[in-house]
Structure formats: structure tokens, C-alpha cells
Design a protein that fits this description.
The structure is a homodimer. By secondary structure, chain A is of the alpha/beta class. Helices cover 31% and strands 23% of the residues of chain A. In chain A, the strands form eight sheets. Chain A has a five-stranded parallel β-sheet with strand order 5-2-1-9-22. In chain A, α1 packs parallel to α9 and α5 packs antiparallel against α6. Chain A is globular and about 75 Å long. Chains A and B meet through β4, α3, β5, α4 and α5 of A and β4, α3, β5, α4 and α5 of B.
């Protein structure tokens, strides 16, 4: 019997775990991803703050799929633009591929909530290139401030505003706060550290809302020790001419606004079926991750929204949920319909770090903060990184930076202007 | 007595060594460079072939200048656009800076010999971003070939042409040849290694012309073992519609042409003096590296051309000459005119590598090739890299790749399209 074609859109946590646990005797597996690598989003902020090389948290999919548990899974480059539900095909910018079963694990991208032109004006952290760009632009502001004598321009260049008080926002604000406290004086003699202003703004009344009150308080304490201003209960309305305006009338002038305020499911066009996305443009699935309104299509990870008694608004969009859904679906795919196990999320806890020696870890039962939590954070993240070489390089970088504060990665490495002929075009 | 202002344009081998040895009691030193890092060109080809992270061979200037031998030297970001010889100022895109003494160490860039639009169509290796781009595009061709069914297009995607038979050309051709021999079969099941064609083309009748006959022969042997075609005595005339045409009428169709065929001095505009550049747009200097036709201006490194009895056409444009000129000028700058020592180049030898276990080393007296030469090459390059952290990371990468052929760096990491507002603009 020939194998059935399983196409997985997206080689993130969900898609890769599905490929790992799927039965290779039944399924002929292909991962389609616009990038040729699996990335590790929890550490994007360290790329943005010049603490890690991009390559340390990016893993070529072809190399991964060569490893034993994935054996025979294939990779094809492509950005999936549409799915023909009736014809059972997907179409990328390069080709149309037929499937027997399709799993959508395409993840999320930034949500700009319809604020005009915001995408062009802010920096973000939802992909490796976005993080590299964030690093380049933060360092560029410091260089340009050194050269700038106009006090107003200089102030705007040295004001860094992070919008969004979730883990990504807290972590990048903390990392910039550390630069202010420990790096500026040493490496930028033309700047007084007090000139650098770091502000984190959150619409809710607490940081790390998803992690509970204690974690939120610890985060505020930690950030304040790094001289980061914490603004709560302010929602951004507009950002134009370098001025960010908030709903309560507050304004701040900044050349650098880092946007971590929300995510939305990657946009996909469905043909031959009427698929209505749910909250946050997520794809509505049943307890078996089956896409409502289509046959032979599943959605897993951040892009999927599944509701149950415990999670009436869907599961949190975190790595754990994605990994667990990938594995559960992989096992279900080799079962008959009746024998399928509904997905049930096991929350192993969440964590966030706020600079050196400071982190918060929350497992529901247990709340840790401070230096021990930070070691837990380091250990868990190091072990989650794919590949021994990457772990070794990350560990060297962390130890080096811990003792010296002297990152060798503060590089402004912008692309040479690409000629028109180049990329994606044929 | 207040110190005199010494401005150095360029933080490469020449400029950085000058800053290191200049007398800090006399000179107030500022390095102006468009990039905030010092780079290590001999290993650019390893970035292009996904063997090393860009950050491993790029060293933030602010961190370097913090180190003891440079103490108090400053860095300012800027691309020097013009030099006002009469007013004693330089102008970047950001500012105008006065100098008492100016040292031009701006290096070279690619020479396209006036071939129309060549710059937009080829890939090059003269800077870190160019090398990153080369990596992205080589990997992109392989991905697109996997998806391509049209035989002619597929052939063009899988043909890699390197123009220029100097060390950079030989090294990148060898690295792509290694991918063909060792990587394609393992990681690209959709491609037959025999489909991949690697060609190196040189206008002269030998490779590595500067290193002597024996080295040239060894390079050809080594490249042929890696299934690289070596074409000698062919000069490229044009490259359009994917077709490269050579003076003898030969043509080859390729999507990827890597240009290492020539360099030219970085363009600079001189005001208030008539400075005539010499061969290869290099700045003509006397035996003390004084720029002919200007006061208080010196030029060192690849951009300078100095002739003496032994080098009637100028010194080779290599790291050693740049380092030696930087040091010699640094010492001369604290001497009176009469006590200055004319520069004399001490050739310590040259080397190039052609894949694993193969290199050629030529010290004039001694010619080495094969595995021992390769170890010499590895050792010399590793020791020349700035910083312990970088050496450790490079060593890990080399050892890892040597045993596994499984580079974790084969990443296509293209920039997110930058918005119009961003960079360099104010």
C-alpha cells in the first residue's frame, strides 16, 4: 500500500513535533515553510539585544529532518498563499502541491490592530529577521545619538519604548535596561547613561498578566531596578512623526518603538470552503484539532483555537501547547476516528526573565523569582535548544556576557541593498 | 599642550593597527567607519559557504577600542563622502569633522571593470553583508532547484560560476565544491550531486597567480578533486539574462555568478586639491605613506599604492601589508620629518585553502601543500581572530563541521523588507 501524503505547513514547535511522532509507515511527510530553518522564539529577544547570534537559535530544517526521529520527512521551501479545500491542494509562490491530509501549523504574526502604517514604523520580534533588524536599529540609535547635538533629536534617539507587557516585552525592555545600566558608560563615552530612557507600556493594569499577580509585581520590581519606566493602563492610539500617543492623552517622542502588543494568525486564503477564523484570526478546531468546515485539514499550535471547559477562550499561545498538540495529533493520525484522543493541555508553567539574575517562574503551584528562577530559566532554555553545537555556542555566549558585559555581537549588520532582480522572483 | 586630532578613516587591519601603535600622549584618535565593527576578510568565504557565523569574524569597534592598547581612541559611525584638503575637514552623511592629521585606510571594494549592470547581477565577497547575501543566494538556488521541473531552469539554478582565480575565488569555489561532494546527497534528496556544476574562471593562465606556479597547480588539483571545473585564460565580457559570455566566445548559463575578479580603491572625493588616483583607483603615496598632493594626509593599506625597487607596481593588497603600514606610520607620526623610517614590506608568505585537508602555503622560501598546510592555515587564521570568545566559537564550528559535514548555519536569512523610513535617512 502506498503511503498517504501528509503536508505540514510550518516547521515550528507544533509542525516539527508532529513530524517527529507521526507514523512513518503510514505517512509520507512534507514540511512546507517559507524559511529553511526552525526557529526558537523564546530567545528572539536575545538576538534583538545582541546577546546571541541568530544562528544559535535557528536550526536548518533539512538538517533536523535528517535526524533519526524525522527520517524520510522532506522539506520544501514556500510561503503558502492559498489552500484549495475542494481540490486538496496548497499553493505557494512556487508551486501547487496535492495532499491527502493537511496540517496547518503556520503560527502567528504581529497584530497592529489596524493602526495606520504602524507596521512600517515600529520594530518587532516575531521572527529572526525581525529580531536582527531590532538589534541593528537599537545600536544605530546609540551611534546616531553620539553624533547628534540637537537636544530634542538626541532625546528621541535615546528613548526606547516597548509596547506590550507580555514576556517578549518584559524581556526586551529588561535587556535594553541592562544596556543602559551596564554598557553605555563603558562603550559609549559620548552618551550619559541617564540620557537613555526605557519605557514599557501595557494596556492592562499589570505586566505578565497570564502569569498571575506575583509574577507581575516581580517583573515591575526587576524592571525598575534596571531603570525601566513601567506605564500601565495605557493603550497606544497612534505613532506618527516619532510621537506615540496613548488613549489617556500621554505622548512620548521616540525614534524606536518596539511592538510586542499582540499577535494574529498568519493570513491564509481558503478556496472551495467557507472557513471563518475565530478570535485573533486563529483557525477554529475541534478537540481533535480538526479544522471546522473542511475535510482532512487540521490546525495545531498558535494558529489554532480550541476551546474546552478549562480554556473557554482557547489555549495560551506558547511553545508547550504547540508541542503537545503536535504530538497528540501525530498519534491520532494513525488511529481510526473513534479511537482518537481529544487534546488536553497540560500546563507545565511559564517563565520570563528580566535581566541577569532575575526571572520569574510560575508553574501554577510554585512561584519562583530572583536568582534561582533565573538559573531555572537558563537551564530550561538551554536544554530546549536543538543541537549540541548550538547549546555549546549559546552557553559560551551566556557565560562570556555574564562576566564581561562585553558582547561581541553588538554589530550593525544591515543588508547591502538587494538588487531588483533578486529574491523570490523567478 | 593639547593633543592633536588624528582622524583615521576605516577600522580595518591598517587603521586599527595604526590606532594601536600611535602615541596616545600626542594624538587624540578617532576612527570613522561606516560599519561599527572590524571585520576579518580572509574568512568571508566561510560565511558565504555557511561554515561560520558572521559574528565570529566581526568585532565591534567600540569593544576593541576599549581594550588597553587602544585606550581613549574613539569611534564615530559614518561613511566618509568627501575630504576638504584645504579646510582640513572630512564630511560623512552625518557631520563634518576637523582633523590635524588624516589617515585614509578605507580599503577597496569590488571592481566591475565597467561591465554594465554587473553589480546588480552578481554576488560578491568584499564585506560581511555581501558574504551573508552570498550564503542566502547559494542556499536559495538549491531550494529552488528542488522545486523546479524545467530542465533548463534547473540546470541554471544548479550551476555556480566563480569569476576570479585569486585566493577568495579559489576558496569559495572549493567550498561550493565540498557542498556538491559531501552535502547535497545527504541534505537535498531532490538533487543529484552530479547535477551541481561548479566552475571557476580566471583570465590569466594560472590560479593563485600571486603565489607562484606550484601553488597554482596544487589549487587546480585540489579543486578538480572536488569536481570543480577550472577554466583558465577566459575573461568575462558580459553577464545578462543569466548568460555569462567570455572573450573566447564561451558562454555559460547560471543563476549564480560570484564575482571575485578585481578590486578598486573605495571612492573618495577630494576638495581643495588635485589628487590623482593611481592604478586601481588607489591613492598614490610616498615611502612614508604621505598622500602625494596634500598636506597632513596619509594613506595606508589596500587603498594606498606605494612603489619601491622591489615592488614597482605597489605592494600586494593583503592583510600583512596593511598591518605593517599601520604600525610603521604610527611610529613615524611621533617622529620629526627627518627621523621618519621609510616603509619596507616584509612578505611573511601567503596561503589559501581549498576544502578540508587541503591548502597551499607559500612563504617565498617554503612551499607547503596538503593536510599539513591546511593545519598551518587553520592555526594562523584562528590566532588572527580577535577575541577569545570568537576563537572558541570558530573552533567549535570548525571541529563540528569537520566531523559531521552538518553545518547548522545553512540558513536563508533574508532581511524583512525594510520600510522606506528606515536607515541612514534622518
Amino acid at each position: 500500500m502506498s503511503k498517504k501524503k501528509l503536508i505540514i505547513i510550518g516547521g515550528g514547535f507544533a509542525g516539527l513535533n508532529l513530524a517527529k511522532f507521526a507514523d512513518k509507515n503510514i505517512w509520507d511527510i512534507t514540511i512546507v515553510d517559507r524559511n529553511n530553518y526552525h526557529a526558537f522564539p523564546p530567545l528572539f529577544y536575545q538576538v534583538a539585544s545582541a546577546g546571541l547570534e541568530p544562528a544559535s537559535i535557528s536550526f536548518p530544517l533539512r538538517r533536523e529532518l535528517n535526524a533519526r526521529p524525522y527520517r524520510h520527512a522532506r522539506y520544501r521551501m514556500g510561503n503558502v498563499e492559498s489552500i484549495d479545500v475542494a481540490a486538496h491542494t496548497i499553493t505557494t509562490q512556487f508551486e501547487t502541491i496535492p495532499y491527502d491530509t493537511l496540517v496547518i501549523a503556520a503560527g502567528t504574526t504581529n497584530n497592529y490592530f489596524g493602526i495606520p502604517d504602524l507596521e512600517k514604523r515600529v520594530f518587532s520580534l516575531k521572527s529572526v529577521p525581525e529580531a536582527i533588524r531590532c538589534r541593528n536599529e537599537i545600536l544605530d540609535r546609540l551611534e546616531r545619538a553620539v553624533l547628534c547635538k540637537d537636544p530634542a533629536k538626541r532625546k528621541s534617539l535615546l528613548t526606547f519604548v516597548v509596547v506590550g507587557g507580555g514576556p517578549a516585552g518584559v524581556e526586551i525592555a529588561g535587556a535594553i535596561g541592562e544596556m543602559k545600566r551596564f554598557v553605555i558608560k563603558k562603550e559609549y563615552p559620548g552618551i550619559d547613561p541617564d540620557e537613555v530612557k526605557v519605557i514599557i507600556v501595557e494596556g492592562n493594569d499589570a505586566l505578565l498578566k497570564a502569569m498571575g499577580k506575583k509574577a507581575g509585581h516581580d517583573a515591575i520590581d526587576g524592571l525598575r531596578q534596571l531603570c525601566v519606566d513601567v506605564w500601565l493602563g495605557k493603550t497606544m492610539e497612534s505613532y506618527a512623526d516619532r510621537i506615540a500617543t496613548f488613549t489617556d492623552g500621554t505622548t512620548v517622542t521616540t525614534d524606536t518603538l518596539i511592538w510586542t502588543a499582540g499577535v494574529t494568525g498568519q493570513p491564509l486564503i481558503f478556496k472551495g470552503a467557507d472557513i471563518k477564523p475565530g478570535h485573533g484570526n486563529r483557525l477554529v478546531v475541534d478537540r481533535f484539532n480538526r479544522l471546522i468546515g473542511a475535510d482532512d485539514i487540521y490546525a495545531i499550535g498558535d494558529i489554532a483555537i480550541m476551546t474546552d471547559e478549562k480554556y473557554p477562550h482557547g489555549h495560551p499561545q506558547v511553545a508547550q501547547a504547540a508541542l503537545q498538540q503536535g504530538k497528540n495529533l501525530a498519534l491520532n493520525l494513525s488511529r481510526t476516528q473513534d479511537a482518537m484522543t481529544p487534546f488536553s493541555y497540560r500546563d507545565k508553567g511559564t517563565m520570563a526573565t528580566i535581566g541577569r539574575n532575575k526571572a520569574v517562574v510560575d508553574t501554577g503551584r510554585l512561584h519562583l523569582s530572583g536568582r534561582f528562577a533565573w538559573f531555572v530559566w537558563l537551564f530550561v532554555h538551554l536544554m530546549s535548544i536543538l543541537g549540541m553545537r548550538n547549546r555549546a555556542v549559546v552557553l559560551i555566549n551566556w557565560i562570556w556576557n555574564y562576566f564581561t558585559f562585553s558582547s561581541g555581537l553588538r554589530l550593525i549588520m544591515r543588508p547591502k541593498r538587494y538588487p531588483v532582480r533578486a529574491y523570490w522572483s523567478e
